Amino acid sequence: MKKTILETREVVKIYESGNLVVKAVDGVSISVAAGEFVGLVGPSGSGKTTMLAMLAGLLNPSEGQLIIDGQRINQMNDVQRTRFRREKIGFTFQANNLVPYLTALENVELMLRLNKKNGRQGRKKARQLLARLGLEDRLNNLPSQLSGGQQQRVAIARALIHEPSVVLADEPTASLDTERANQVVGIFADLIHEQNKAGIMVTHDLRMCKFVDKVIQMVDGKVARVITDRATIDQLAGSSQFDAVSESLTQNPSQHQPLLIPHVPKWTAVAVGAD
Q1: How many angstroms separate the CA atoms of 198 and 244, rounded?
Q2: pTM, whole model, 2 decimals?
Q3: In terms of Cα–Cα distance, which of 19, 31, 28, 17 is closest to 61?
Q4: How crowded is residue 198: how many other Cβ atoms within 10 Å of its Cβ?
């Protein structure tokens, strides 16, 4: 059994607005093992982006525990958490966030410099990783000289180059066409498996679930369903929405349990000081 790298225990995130308390994340407990790639899905407002921000150490939970590599990151102070995030967590974002005046190679090497690993071996590794991603002839190109898919591959290399324990991706295919989306997520999944990382991808595109090992569905800030069965994941990836899969599965109850059908998302709000 593979080692658990990332774990959350009854995590809650509460926002206060006037006399209202809004639960964006409500009692979420999940785990991701080394070499496991997880898809975090759900309708808008389900809490998945807030959950990803807490896993990245960008937000503190209001309640519960966030554990990465055996360390409780929500108990760290700001300095400790910043250092941990820099060393142990890799990110890819929907907007890439590449530095526009740095080349593809320099963008990747930037993470090595931040972690003081930019020696000869580090630079060699950066070149090899970009080559592995099919960018060996684009090392000296600026982001503006790269296609959307190429920019995402640079972002993937930057997220992995410093050997983090956890890699997080927020809607990495939102601006890509189907061919480039499949290429980017396929490579991302291969590298997570090869390098034995714990990976989580937030996505609205259920077709990308064909690359993951587990699907976690969130609805209204809670985990509604965890799917590990390969056949069910593949069926989900072949559908444009949860409803279609749910209908199919409920017609064959002997083979699968029906998926929960997402409904219009809503946050749980409780009036403060109300009678």
Answers
A1: 30
A2: 0.82
A3: 28
A4: 27
Cβ neighbors of 17 (< 8 A, separation 6 or more) are: none
126-160 in b/e burial notation, b at 16+ Cβ within 10 A?
A: bbebbebbebeebbebbbeebebbbbbbbbbbbbb
Cβ atoms 183, 149 nearer than 8 A: yes
CATH 3.40.50.300 for domain 4-271, yes or no, is yes
- Check if the beta carbon of residue 221 is closer than 8 Å to that of residue 188: no
Round to whole Å and give the CA distance between 68 and 63: 16
CA separation, residue 75 to residues 62, 64, 68, 72, 78 (Å) = 12, 10, 12, 6, 10
Q: Could you tell me the mean pLDDT of each successive run of 10 residues in the chain, 275 residues long?
A: 92 90 94 96 92 93 95 93 92 85 94 84 90 92 92 91 92 84 90 94 93 96 95 86 46 38 39 39
- Inter-CA distances, 210 with 23, 35, 49, 69, 236, Å: 31, 16, 21, 27, 8
